[in-house]
Every structure is written in structure tokens, then in C-alpha cells.
């Protein structure tokens, strides 16, 4: 099972939400269900949208959660995706966890803006609350303590219920915050392949990733401050031993972000 939410706290540059939407299409997960999520959203922050069909006729798309099911090479696969809740988190957790009980592996996907250069491989942090799963996959046991978002809560609750959950967070350059990042989505996709053994075939993603990087090059070149910032980030990146040091850096960045977020509430 794969879970990702749209929202500022868990989906930097739409890396995670874009990946699960592409997985639904690439894997042909046609069995879909919309969960009853009325009461979980504050509409000032999770706004409904007007959508139009090919004739121009308007309809309203309310924030919510979709569940998509299917098979990937004989393996049952479920994707849960939608908007990050703003209200009644305990009830929301119970709703999502009721869908998770049959999964033997839960993959929680997120993105975080961090001090990483767009010209280098974007780091992905992989960790889990499950010590035995960490040993099997060769990843870290999550040792973070402090304020947390909905994905972190799901990871803890999965572990409490004996469900094997892994957290995958990609670091996205914090100076490129205004557009989706195919390169970040591609990094997450590679991490999913590595830690689940499921092949992800989205050929256009590599082309879009290269186009995004070229666009970022052009944007940075127009701003002397960003040019100097990028040089510093590249030097810092190149002086470390990848991927471990970059993973440690993004994990530390994530903890700083969560603690800052907790102080601001």
C-alpha cells in the first residue's frame, strides 16, 4: 500500500502526490473508491476547486481521499491519495488505518524543501519504526521525537498495530518552490523500486526531469544570489559521501522543520 497526501506539510513540489497519481495510471489501478471524509477539512486552507468538462460545464471538486486497488505482476497494490486533513486527525487516522489492515507493507511518501542543489541527485530518506524491517531493508530506525504531521502519525500507528510501514521522504531544493518537480518524483520512484522490488515504468518522467533541471538552470542563472547559493550547496554536497551524508542532512532538515512547525502553532 502506498499513501501520499497533497498539502504544504507533506508534499513539497508535489513530488509524492504526483508519483502516486502516476502509479495509479501506470499500474492500471481501476478499482477506486472515494472515502467519506466530510468534516476533516478547513476549506480556507484546503479549498474546493471548480473543474470543467470538455463542454465547459462547471462542477465542484471537494477535497477528499481516494483509494485505488489493483494488481502489479500478481502483487495486490493499493494507493491512498488525496488532501492532507486539517481537522479531527484521530478520526482520520482510524479511517485510513481501516483501509491498511490487509497490507503486508505500507509505504508513506512525502517531500520536503531543504538545502539541496538541483544539479545533483536529490536525496531520499528511508526509515521505519519497525526494527526488524529496518534490518531487512538496510535502512534506519526512526529515532525522531517532537512535533509531527499526519504521515508520521500513520507510521507510528502502523507500528503499534503490527503493520510494516516505511517512510520515504525526498529532499527538494528550497529555492525552487513554485512548481512541481519531476526530478523529485523520479527520485521517490527509484526509492520505491529499491525498497519494494516493484518496477515503476514511467518513461516520460526521465525526460520531464531533464527538462525541469534545464529550466532550473536558466532560472538560477538570472539571479546572482541564487548562483552563489547553488555554488555553496554544490560544494557542500560534493564534500560529503553520498548517499549516507545527504540522507543524514535531509533527515536533520526534516527534524528542524517539524520542530519549527511545532513552535509556530
Concise synopsis of the structure shown:
With 265 residues, the chain is of the alpha/beta class. Helices cover 42% and strands 22% of the residues. It is built from 8 helices and 10 strands.
What do these coordinates show?
The model is unreliable at 242-246 (pLDDT under 50). The radius of gyration is 19 Å and the shape is globular. It is 42% helix and 22% strand. The protein is an alpha/beta fold and 265 residues long. It has an eight-stranded mixed β-sheet with strand order 2-5-6-1-7-10-8-9, with helices on both faces. The chain is built from eight helices and ten strands. It has helices at 15-26, 89-100, 131-137, 150-160, 182-196, 203-221, 224-238, 244-264, and strands spanning 2-6, 31-34, 49-52, 58-61, 65-72, 75-83, 106-114, 124-128, 140-141, 165-173. It starts with a strand and ends with a helix. The chain has one domain: PAC-like subunit (Rossmann fold). α1 (15-26) crosses α5 (182-196) and α5 (182-196) packs across α6. This is Filament polymerization regulator ParJ. It comes from Brevibacterium picturae.
Sheet having the most strands: 8 strands, mixed
The value of Rg in angstroms is 19 Å
Please trace the helix and strand order, writing H or E for each element.
Answer: EHEEEEEHEEHEHEHHHH
How much of the sequence is in beta strands?
15-25%
CATH topology: Rossmann fold
How many helical elements? Answer: 8
Our count of domains comes out at: 1
Strand order of the largest sheet: 2-5-6-1-7-10-8-9
Q: If classified by CATH, what would the architecture be?
A: 3-Layer(aba) Sandwich
Mean pLDDT: 88
Kindly report the name of the CATH homologous superfamily.
Answer: PAC-like subunit
The SS-based structural class is alpha/beta
Percentage of helical residues?
A: 40-55%
Described by the principal axes of the CA atoms, the overall outline is globular
CATH level-1 class: Alpha Beta
Strand segment tally: 10
Low-confidence stretches: 242-246
What is the distance, rounded to the nearest whole angstrom, between the alpha carbons of the first and last residues?
Answer: 31 Å
